[in-house]
Design brief:
Elements lengths: L2 H11 L11 H7 L3 E2 L3 H9 L7 H10 L3 E5 L5 E5 L3 H6 L2 H12 L5 H14 L6 H12 L2 E6 L9 E7 L2 E4 H8 L5 E7 L2 E6 H4 L8 H16 L4 H8 L3 H11 L3 E6 L2 E6 L3 H6 L8 E3 L21 H4 L9 E4 L2 E11 L2 E8 L5 H17 L4 E8 L5 E3 L1
Parallel strand pairs: 14-15
Antiparallel strand pairs: 1-3, 2-3, 4-5, 5-6, 7-8, 9-10, 11-12, 12-13, 13-14, 15-16
Helix pairs in contact: 7-8, 7-9, 12-13
Amino acid sequence: MSPEQVAAFRLRRHRLIERAPAGSVVPVVGEMGGAQAQVLGAARSSLWARVEALEATDVDRALWEDRHLVRAWCMRRTLYLVPAADVAVYVRGTARRAEKEVRWVRNRGIPGRAIGDWIDGLLGALDEPLTRSEIAERLGPALGVRIRWAVGGGGWGSRRKIPWLGSGRSSLPVAYLMHLAGARGVLCSGPNRGSEATFVRADAWIPGWRDRSVDDAELELLRTYLRAFGPATPGDFVAWTRILMFEARTTWERLGSELAEVEVDGRVAWVLRTDLRDLEREDAGELPVRLLPFFDSFLLGHLDRGHLLPPANVRDVYRNQGWVAPVVLVEGRVAGVWSASPAGRRLGVDVDLFGPTSRRLEAAIRREAEDLARFLGCGAAAVRIRSRRTRAPVSA
């Protein structure tokens, strides 16, 4: 297979060649293998890049009213938006990673029985959406453990005081305990209560909840991954999920006859056999320009990123502490980065291209920026484009 065929196949599966019809937000989330939602606004914008005429309220309605989407910890133990009907696939399919973290905590001095009791107590309490502080208030008396409030453990350098559960000289933040609970149960986000997030058990939140066994979920998660990111290797699957390599290889082997081996630029990779014909026939023609937001899932599916951008620009996109910058996608490759900030009724969009610009490229970027402004509730976009090759900004 040629690199061009592979690029077009992945772009089409991610709805980055033609946007999906309006109203298809839930199936699109499934097709792309989930939208990373550590920052919920970034997940909304990922879907804007893929669904025609999307409104931010469409995503929120699917999350909090219809409950057809859920926000849950799954791949890499980060928060993703996934279809509610498949959340057990994403959580159970990565549960061995959470189990590994349970073992790590035991080695840090908290007895294994205590960890099990805490997880069971947490799962039992979350039959309705609760904030972290409400969880602590319930678990402390029920389990006979002390609660302390301390800075740290809130993620990404947060300086807010958060609740910790204590056992002897050791303690855990409630937020981390919820990560560990992913080894035994399925949790998801509930609607915010003011500025505080809430969390709830999936079976208590999702209408028609259906659980999956870990073994079954692992196979279905690999199928989901390959539909969106194939051709790929076990190493790519590890990069996407952060499960152990031997676990990835075991699941790969179990899928067996469902896989087809292909060669791309001298490298061997695999696709689902049912997708082989689509890959062979792929011919995207001219590819559109897309503005992808922070942490877009398209940028997170492979270990080697050479198909996306040259080594000289990797740090422009993949930054410290796990941050992935918003990118300009041109012909399926990252051609630059961008940022946006509202200014009154206008959205200021600054674009930094890695290479030369052209009138055609600038016009395509402006069209995308104007629609992003609509999506974000701004009247218009004020776009400034800078090319590193020319060092000359072009404003509009």
